[in-house]
Each structure stands twice: as structure tokens, then as C-alpha cells.
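Researcher: Good morning. I'm working through a list of sequences from a screen, and I'd like to move beyond sequence-only analysis. For each chain I'm collecting a predicted structure so we can compare shapes side by side. This is the next one on the list. No need for commentary yet; just the structure.
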Amino acid sequence: MLNENLPSPEKIFPKSGVDFMTNVKPTIKNPNIVVGDFTYFSDVDFEKHVTHHYDFLGDKLIIGKFCQIAAGVEFVMNGANHQMNAVSTFPFYVMDSWDAKPPAPTDMPMKGDTVVGNDVWIGQNATILPGVHIGDGAIIGCNSVVASDVPAYTIVAGNPARPIRKRFDDELIALLEKFCWWNKSIEEIKALVPLLMCGDLNKVKTEIAGMV
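Model: Good morning. C-alpha cells for this chain:
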């Protein structure tokens, strides 16, 4: 039975009276897009922001729990790639009347699935390119173009996005990666909110160390 005193990951609008921020998971129809609980988008119709995502390629966009995705963020999938090992990059095989055969899959620069970890904040108008893996707790700056993997709990920005700094020291990052608070029950997470919002990192480190 639904507990009305707890947040629901199936509620499309997580904030009453706000219709421009949506929980992504309950809106997804494409089976090749997998999104975790409570990840939200500061807009509606998230799937329109996943471009060049063609069923026949089979690549997936996988996003973890509790991610925060700002307006204007675009996920560019592998279907945007053109053949690069030939003289021309023009997709003759797509256009009418050229009678061209599609290149072999091995001739296309396929980058694999795009994977975003948990509790990742992606700033406004950032672009995530195909096959990128973004670690838990990372922050992506506004207008960044993410073309390579981002380590956990690292801030990146720019075009192409480059590391600015780690958010925490290595000890706390290792504890957080082991703690995986996002995988706990909603009741447990609700009880942890004061700790998750605490700016005293020494206190956070001590308390989490006692729980892992």
C-alpha cells in the first residue's frame, strides 16, 4: 500500500504546483532508455532530448537514481555518427535514389551505451555524446560537451568537458561509493536526508564510516 507520507518515484511531477519539472522514470516509453527512481528533468518530454536513438542500433541510455538534469540537456546517441574511415562522411545510404548500401557495423564509429551514475547533476544545455560513462556524484557544468568518461564525484566543464576538481577527498569518495545511499529504501533515505545535506564533511565521513 502506498504511503502518502513518503515520496513516490512514480509521481510524474515531484513538486506540487510545478509542472515544468518531471520525474523521468514514469514518463519513459522507449525500452532502450533506462532511468532510476527520483531522477528528475527540469522540463517535460525527456525522450525528445535523447536524439539519434534508433532501435536498429540497439544502444541504450542508462541513467541512475536521484540525478538532476537541467533544462536543455541533450543526450546524443550513436545514430548521430557517420562513417569516418572512408573518403566521404556523407550518408548516401540514408538518402533517396543513391542506391548505396549501408556500411558494415564495423565501419561505423559505434561507442556503445551511454551510462550516467547516481546523484549526478547535469547543468543547463550540456550535451552528452555517445558512449560516455559518468560516475556517481559527478557534476557537469552548464553548456559543457561531454565527450569522454567522467570519474565519480568529479566536477567537469567546458567544450570538451575537462575535470575542474574532485568534489571530496579520496577517503570520502571511497566511502560514498561503498555506501550507495541511493540503493537504500525510501524510508532509510528519508532518515538520511540531514546527513546527505550536511556541509560538515568530517562529520559526514565519520558517520558514513560507521555505517559501511
